[in-house]
Design goal:
9% of the residues lie in helices and 50% in strands. It is mainly β and 120 residues long. It has a 9-stranded mixed β-sheet with strand order 2-6-3-5-4-7-1-8-9. The chain is globular.
Length: 120
């Protein structure tokens, strides 16, 4: 049996922009992606703590060091700049592997600076 497990999480990011006229995705500073174990173009779940919305999309790398979190395309209608969001990536693994999964979690402040790193 395979299980779908959390592999990376960015907690309490602030949306910096929302651009409807775009193909779709969530643009994220690649330095933050790397810290959280989320790959560019990986499928992600975005949970908006401000309005309760949840959506699936994929992560695209923004400008390194920009601290950008920009919802694009139709997803941009699910949030506003300043909204607090959590971004999660999951992967499939075997039953045996699932017992050794240690997802990376980073916590951000109001300026999207990393204030905590955890390995669950």
């Amino acid at each position: 049996m395979n299980r779908q497990m959390l592999t990376g999480k960015i907690h309490r990011a602030r949306l910096t922009a929302c651009v409807v006229d775009y193909e779709g995705s969530l643009e994220v500073d690649p330095e933050i992606l790397a810290e959280s174990n989320i790959l560019p173009y990986e499928k992600i779940l975005v949970v908006n703590a401000t309005n309760g919305e949840r959506l699936e999309t994929y992560a695209i790398p923004g400008q390194p060091g920009s601290r950008v979190f920009c919802l694009n395309g139709a997803a941009a209608r699910r949030g506003n700049p300043g909204d607090v969001v959590t971004i999660m990536a999951f992967s499939f693994c075997s039953e045996a592997e699932s017992h050794n999964m240690r997802p990376k979690v980073i916590v951000l402040d109001e300026n999207n600076m990393i204030v905590a790193r955890k390995q669950l």
